[in-house]
Amino acid sequence: MPLPLEGVRVLDLTNVMAGPYCSMVLGDLGAEVVKIESLEGDTTRSFEPKVNDESYCFAVLNRNKRSLSADLKSAQGREIVLRLAARSDIVLENFRPGVVKKLGIDHEALRQVNPGLIYASMSGFGQTGPYGRKGGFDIIAQGMSGIMMMTGHPGGRPAKVGIAMNDIACGVTTLYGILGAYIGKLRHGTGQYLESSLLEAGLAWSIWEFGAYFGSGEQPTATGTRHRRSAPYQAFRSGDGYVTVGASGEKLWRAFALQVCEKPEWVEDARFRTNALRVRNVDALEAEVEQVLGCHPTAYWVERLDAAGVPGGPVYTFDQALADPQVKARRMVVDMEHPRIGPMKMLGLPVKSDGALTEIRQPAPLLGQHTREVLRELGFQDSEAAAMLAAGVVKAQA
């Protein structure tokens, strides 16, 4: 059975994280992705660690793609993009706003050669507004979306989320925009231009905080691991580490107090009788709970939580997370052979299905690995490709 995007052609002009994540998932869904890189390559090709001089981080993020390396500032580089756009269904770019217009490869230019194109732009702040020409990185967007001020522990310095959250959020947001636009094209026959930003994508994920702010004027601040609306719902210190507990709602709270901790007095305690009271008195609740949980290791409490039907789990280091039997059973770490790295690990597919939906078909490409191949497909003669290589317009693997 073919994958859903098999036969769909994607021209990927993106770099670093947000765009490459989006195009990677399009490739996982079956699309044919041609990644245009500068002569120096995607910025993440320089990221450590490297194995046999290839970045492991780049390799994890750029599977299911072909690489063509070209100087987009040259007339011939622009011609390559135009020819690719003419045969593509989707184009992605995440240059600083205004750059693609200077290069002559903006939406208006590419629409001249392909009116039905779906063209997606990603940027730090969007293509319009007072910051419409400003570049931005993940940490800038985390700061300006308010996320850093609500992350970390009370009274501490603003904290960055441990992963590149706004980058990934922008990649995912753009992905559903592209898929929606593609479905629209299948139904109505027209392509379209769409754009998103690191700032907006991050803001779009602040659902509860948005509701509380406009509902009561509440300013979301850092709460550590605590939930703003429910308690106990956090990580508690155990005898050998931390254990998470999600005892939200009265039924789970009673099960936690009576069956897990064997503390019936908590149920009758005036401070903890309702969820609202438990949230209001969360400092006292935490102290009571940790006095009990500190008597035994995390594994002991996870077993008791499971037996009582109360959601809970260990707080892992990353290596522990990857080694967990559930993660292994769900194949979130898979093996792949890379042409230069050799045997390597790849993040698995997070969506499972009973049909053909996503697949890891090929490893990340070497810089310019497919330059000659793609130029030939675009109608360039071998002599023309050789001349461009000699002139430094394109780069290819030997």
Automatic annotation (TrEMBL):
This is CoA transferase. It comes from Ramlibacter pallidus. Signal peptide: none annotated. InterPro entries: CoA-transferase_III_domain, CoA-Trfase_fam_III, CoA-Trfase_III_dom3_sf, CoA-Trfase_III_dom_1_sf. GO terms for molecular function: transferase activity. The keyword Transferase applies. Coiled coil: none annotated. Keywords: Transferase. Gene3D superfamilies: Crotonobetainyl-coa:carnitine coa-transferase, domain 1, formyl-coa transferase, domain 3.
